[in-house]
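Please review this one.

:::
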Amino acid sequence: MNDLSPLLPAAGSADALRTAPHNAEAEAGLLGAILVNNEAFYRVVDFLEPQHFYLAVHQKIYAGISELIRGGKVATPITVKTRFGAEEMIGEMSVPAYLLRLHGDATSIINVLDYASLVYELALRRMLIGIGEDMVNSAYDMVGDVAAGAQIETAEKQLFSLAEKGRSEQGFIGFGTALEDAIQMATAAFQRDGHLSGLATYFKNLDGRMGGLQKSDLIILAGRPAMGKTSLATNIAYNIAKHWRGGVGPNNEIETEAGGIVGFFSLEMSSEQLATRILAEQSGISSSKIRRGDIKSHEFEQVVMASQEMHAIPLYIDQTGGLSVAQLAARARRLKRQKGLDFLIVDYLQLLQGSSRRSSENRVQEITEITTGLKALAKELDVPVMALSQLSRQVESREDKRPQLADLRESGSIEQDADVVLFVFREEYYLQNKEPKPNTEEHLAWQEDMDRVHGLAEVIIGKQRHGPTGTAKLTFEAELTRFGDHIEDDHVPEHF
């Protein structure tokens, strides 16, 4: 193998005492193998880039090889040398001599992937050192008006990005492999309670139409104010967390057997308000009575018992307002790393912020960045992400106030990026505001309509990549903001 010492820091210099991790011989062997057989390039190009080489000359040689092969040409010592100046030297050798030496000392084609993996691994270590140095330097140089938390979030994002490098870039896989994954998913659904392919919401009508919440899906839950979209989200979050069963796997990772670990970003309500709402749902005592303390002793016992049951469920709430999509992603990654994560809720979409550059352009482009970021996060964490969204006021101007996809605010990007779009609709809310004068025929007809829709809610599936659209009926107790399964009259057992 080549004597590469002229290319490294001189012995006795400060840099030589502690150089960054690298293996010059592995780099040289890899480059030589590619020069001998250009087919080797296609085995490493998916993950190896010029900056992953430590020596600058090797970076330049690999970049030249890459440019030639991508251009449909052959990379040899003769063609690669044209990327260098006529008088350029590599250590004490001329460029042609060095390239011929690489070619002559080339390792077997069999070792290419091993050498490339080693070069890549060492590059990751150097990046890790760089992140550490940046952290130290920025902590020393920080000006007074910059929060330390911002530096922590930046460092976390860099570290998680480094940890995930290369995982999503697997390239093409054979159809047989994809088919095996599909069969495994179907087998798991067949064996799971309810025969669902995804995470159960524990609302039978909804799960029956959706097959549960699918991993890596972005689910938009939208509705006009007072329809109950936050209530439905909290109901689903609690149901999933309540049914969680699992443990720590052999790699010290949290493994879920049933239910799920839930993260809830409450950008509008405080964690206390959210907890009070869930406490009301589970205890059967309205949140307004709990807040006022207007409860009897037996009702207080119900509240205490419900809180004891809820205390240990894996539901984690982040109440920070004004988060950017990048900050939200960093916190979600941290939660998955520390506690585990199976389902993520964002309440609500329009309260998130994009980058400052996008914000200065226009709101539609900012929403596009946010929905794209949430979809990417769902795929990265491999969990369903549910984002709540507002609807435009044009719903109110129609006779039939059932929402449609066009009613989504900035609907272009939301509709495009979402895998599933759900609308919450309660006809009772609109009817009760149209009460005619008492003791009239109109009032009798109105009362019949009110009786028909009292306590009913519709979850309209406006879009679903994995199945049909349609409507799932649920019950809704307004005082407790609690949804439940709706049973049709013809399915109610006879009373004896």
Notes: The chain is about 45% helix and 15% strand. Residues 112-141 form the longest helix (30 residues).
